[in-house]
Amino acid sequence: MDWLKHHPLSTLGTSSQAGLDSDEANKSKDCSDTVSTYSNECASNHGYGTDDTLAVTQVLEQHGIPCCLVGIAALVFYGAGRLRDDWEICVPTELVGQAAELLQSEPYATRYRLVRPWPYYSLCSLIHTYHRFKSRGINHYFFLVPSIDMHIDCNPSSFTRSPRGLPYPKLDVLIQSCLDTRDMLQLCDVIDGTNVSEEWGEKNLNLEGTNDVGWAKEKNKRGVAFGGKWAHSLFAWEGRRNKREMWLSLVRTKEDRLDWTKPKDVFLTQYRVIGAPDPWTELSDMS
Which domain of life is it from (predicted)? Predict the structure, then answer.
């Protein structure tokens, strides 16, 4: 599958240079750009880059490539107090190559350019294998994430829109993905960000059976197939765990995650203040 081909820029520079991914470091390697292209001016929305990301999703959608924001971006949308660096844009697995070629073709090549892949290992992630792009002239980076790695159906019927217009997985789609992939960290964050109830889960989720072990084994195989120094790292949890057990273990313990800095007479969860509106319903510079 084409997203597992080695990144065309993966051999440029040293590991330390790859970590910087600076436009200046690439200056001598791409003489087609003007000097101004190499500036790292602030991204839109006070540096969050939200409108810049919206523009990318609109380009993809205009060319028949459905997409949605996943990873930390989705957790922030649903109220989790997380800090996001690069945006993660999920596209159908079979369209990843097409999306990457589109963004490197005219007229979009004047706005975006492919940069070195993510130079670090992330637990239970194939992020180092994804196409990584930068918006020219501003400090705005994003990945193209194949939907197979998110265990979601990347289809508009699975999306909801932020007040700003960015596509995100619907809440039940995102939580189901966390359960099916045994991603307890994201599951905890989305539960505490949304304050969903035990009853909500019984009504909206498939809690029967266990996480998808077959999917996990295939993801680990893809990590091995890609090769490189992390070829034998862990890219997905293969251990089997009951989905209802995972759900109840976190949805019933929201108050237990409150500490002395978040008193129960003020906070519902570690991220939700009593009486505050649902964060995904309000216009925000972050989503």
Answer: Eukaryota
CB 209 within 8 A of CB 244: no
CA distance 234 to 182: 13
Domain residues of the chain, as ranges? 2-281
Peptide bond into 277 cis (omega under 30): no
* The overall pTM is greater than 0.70: yes
Under 8 Å between Cβ of 163 and 108: no
8 Å CB contact between 91 and 99:
yes
- pLDDT tens digits along 37-72: 456 799 999 999 999 999 999 999 999 999 999 999
The answer to whether the CB of 191 falls within 8 A of the CB of 250 is: yes
Cβ proximity of 103 and 65 under 8 Å: no
Contact criterion met (CB below 8 Å) for 124 and 237: yes
Q: Inter-axis angle of helices 184-194 and 243-251, to 10 degrees?
A: 50
Rounded distance, CA 39 to CA 9, Å? 20
Q: pLDDT for 184-232, tens place per residue?
A: 999 999 999 999 999 999 999 999 999 999 999 999 999 999 999 999 9
Question: Are the C-beta atoms of residues 175 and 32 closer than 8 Å to each other?
Answer: no
